From TrEMBL:
NAD(+) binds at residues 33-39, 59, 119, 142-144, 253. It comes from Aegilops tauschii subsp. strangulata (Goatgrass). It catalyses: (S)-malate + NAD(+) = oxaloacetate + NADH + H(+). Belongs to the LDH/MDH superfamily. MDH type 1 family. This is malate dehydrogenase. NCBIfam families: MDH_euk_gproteo. The lineage of its organism: Eukaryota, Viridiplantae, Streptophyta, Embryophyta, Tracheophyta.
Length: 340
């Protein structure tokens, strides 16, 4: 709870001082896919961060204008642009955090898995460059299907001999952001206080909000649980349908990704109190990758929080079992692709 409030506060003003001195603009962040629907507002939000010294924007086209535009904001970070594969290595050298929203988004009627054929190849080639140029960086994967693109990234990093399980993150923050919003609305709670852990994966029924673990503690009828769970799972599709062919969530996604970047930077800066839900390599269940709350520190994932899965309701336990086959298949599909 505290960390998400801190992350939000940091985005709009300055980070709360909780005992770490010398928080200053000193981190380099790269966004790959920076001219896209997510990339542009994400660039803006990262430009507002007091912790960033360099914002490096990469895309295969149209990134010069985005960088020129953002560079006029009078915040500390310097904005740099990189276009096309020939400039990718210089974009990545020395960065602390790499965020990857490159790829195609959904159109009405599509599942996230329908994006696999295009986005798997994009993520593979970008991760190869990350492995060669900034293997120590935190890697944030936004490109869908996240359930498969993160295992692809892991395999590529392994092939390159630089896989650090603690520094590869699938960005599932938007599921938490949505869950917090919908629960606060339904229960008339103050938004800033609400924190719902969301576990599993990032597609359809693999998105499992643990409503029983909502903080502050709040009770739901069976009907409310069913309705809120479904709404959180289908929230992305709600946006895809409302945009009617013009893409998927970009603004709320940028907000969520910026929160995750800010949390990562605070962790790098030594904040001892950073927790986020994220899709990572995990031993929490029998699946090799699983989203859950994790504690993030200077070296990446410090610990995976298991207590959220203890004492869950029967509804949640059944949903957890039900999501496993789908998540397992998505993981295997990613691994298989990486070995082709
Ligand atoms: P978009 O089409 O507006 O932007 C994608 C950008 O990626 C474009 O600027 C394009 O030029 C760039 N790109 C394509 N190939 C590239 C390459 N090889 N290297 C670098 N850049 C490349 O799409 P949008 O809306 O920004 O979505 C991006 C991705 O994020 C999609 O896969 C979408 O499904 C995913 N997404 C993930 C969410 C999550 O919660 N993790 C939520 C919403 C979207």
């Amino acid at each position: 709870t505290i960390s998400s409030v801190g992350a939000q506060a940091a985005l709009v003003s300055k980070p709360r001082n909780r005992g770490i001195s010398g928080l200053k603009a000193s981190y380099k962040v790269a966004v790959l896919g920076a001219a896209g629907g997510i990339g542009q507002p994400l660039g803006l939000l990262i430009k507002m961060s007091p912790l960033v010294s360099e914002l490096r924007l990469y895309d295969i086209a149209n990134v010069k204008g985005v960088a020129a535009d953002l560079s006029h904001c009078n915040t500390p970070s310097q904005v740099m642009d990189f276009t096309g594969p020939a400039e990718l290595a210089s974009c990545l050298k020395g960065v602390d955090v790499v965020v990857i929203p490159a790829g195609v988004p959904r159109k009405p009627g599509m599942t996230r898995d329908d994006l696999f054929n295009i986005n798997a190849g994009i993520v593979k080639s970008l991760i190869e460059a990350v492995a060669d140029n900034c293997p120590e960086a935190f890697i944030h994967i936004i490109s869908n299907p996240v359930n498969s693109t993160v295992p692809i990234a892991a395999e590529i990093l392994k092939q390159k001999g630089v896989y650090n399980t603690k520094k590869l993150f699938g960005v599932s923050t938007l599921d938490v952001v949505r869950a917090n919003t919908f629960v606060a609305q339904k229960k008339g709670l103050k938004l800033i206080d609400v924190d719902v852990p969301v576990v599993g994966g990032h597609a359809g029924i693999t998105i499992l909000p643990l409503l029983s673990k909502t903080r502050p503690s709040v009770t739901f009828t069976d009907e409310e649980t069913e309705q809120l769970t479904k709404r959180i799972q289908n929230a992305g599709t709600e946006v895809v349908e409302a945009k009617a062919g013009a893409g998927s969530a970009t603004l709320s996604m940028a907000y969520a990704a910026a929160r995750f970047v800010e949390s990562s930077l605070r962790a790098l800066a030594g904040d001892p109190d950073v927790y986020e839900c994220t899709y990572v390599q995990s031993e929490l269940t029998e699946l090799p990758f699983f989203a859950s709350r994790v504690k993030i520190g200077k070296n990446g994932v410090e610990s995976i929080i298991s207590s959220d899965l203890e004492g869950i309701t029967e509804y949640e336990a059944n949903a957890l079992e039900a999501l496993k086959p789908e998540l397992k298949a998505s993981i295997e599909k990613g691994i298989e692709f990486a070995h082709k």
